[in-house]
Amino acid sequence: MEKQQCKALYREVLKWVTDQPAWKQSEGRDHILPVHHPWSFKSVRRYLKNAIWLLPDMDSTGNWYKPGQVFLEKDLILPYVPNVELCDAKCMTEIESTRTTILFFRGRLKRNAGGKIRAKLVAELTGAKDVVIEEGSAGEAGKVAAQNGMRKSIFCLSPAGDTPSSARLFDAIVSGCIPVIVSDELELPFEGILDYRKIAIFVSSSDAVQPGWLLNFLKSISRSQISKMQQNLAEYSRHFIYSSPAQPLGPEDLVWRMMAGKLVNIKLHTRRSQRVVKESRSICTCDCRRSNSTSSTFML
């Protein structure tokens, strides 16, 4: 579809949605919109910003979303659909002895915006012993190569892409490969319910690019700690596998559990908007737009 056709369609949808009595009653605050691509609804977002957005990412750099459009109190982060097959607890036990690669990455080696960290990591890690860094490829062959690489590795590098998040993180989780997240602005799905410190290692960009630092850090993690995190990965995988019908504690279920926690705030702002007079200067601006503060730690 041509760009102008898309914009015309967005305007048509916008008019229909905002003309509905239900939208007018709350100014959209109790509506849910899937905005699961950085370009979705871009030309009409300013008219829909009161609604709850289902997002793949919450880019705080301003490259994709303007200030005030997205924030944690209002919106929800959803996981990407994994591109590889699930390696369940039985699978992980069977392949445990074959995980001989310390750190694995397969994907685009050069990206824009926050993803520029990739080029620095590639320069630092390429050629290191027991480390595999590969340019990714699309299609079935690329999927198989990524899946095989992750299942043979203890840690999987998950750096920022063009946005802070990447589908690679969820591929690593369902493969039983401990994610090493190098993305200082990353927000994660269902973090009010899930503790990612049990399944992933968070490393600041400044630490990750120091000569020799990252591999020394990973090698310092004990075998027992690695085993515990792998067990946690086997338990956490179900939270990222979409299914029909939806399963208890699957991503669809967790969306509604997270949504339930927003109801009081939705009612507060809806009722407040209905009674505050136009001349009032008492404007609530309780947006949460602070970026993550990432340190190089892990917790079990």
UniProtKB/TrEMBL annotation:
<protein>
    <recommendedName>
        <fullName>Exostosin GT47 domain-containing protein</fullName>
    </recommendedName>
</protein>
<comment type="similarity">
    <text>Belongs to the glycosyltransferase 47 family.</text>
</comment>
<keyword id="KW-0333">Golgi apparatus</keyword>
<feature type="domain" description="Exostosin GT47">
    <location>
        <begin position="7"/>
        <end position="216"/>
    </location>
</feature>
<keyword id="KW-0812">Transmembrane</keyword>
<dbReference type="GO" id="GO:0016757">
    <property type="term" value="F:glycosyltransferase activity"/>
</dbReference>
<dbReference type="Pfam" id="PF03016">
    <property type="entry name" value="Exostosin_GT47"/>
</dbReference>
<dbReference type="InterPro" id="IPR004263">
    <property type="entry name" value="Exostosin"/>
</dbReference>
<dbReference type="GO" id="GO:0000139">
    <property type="term" value="C:Golgi membrane"/>
</dbReference>
<keyword id="KW-0808">Transferase</keyword>
<keyword id="KW-0735">Signal-anchor</keyword>
<keyword id="KW-0328">Glycosyltransferase</keyword>
<dbReference type="InterPro" id="IPR040911">
    <property type="entry name" value="Exostosin_GT47"/>
</dbReference>
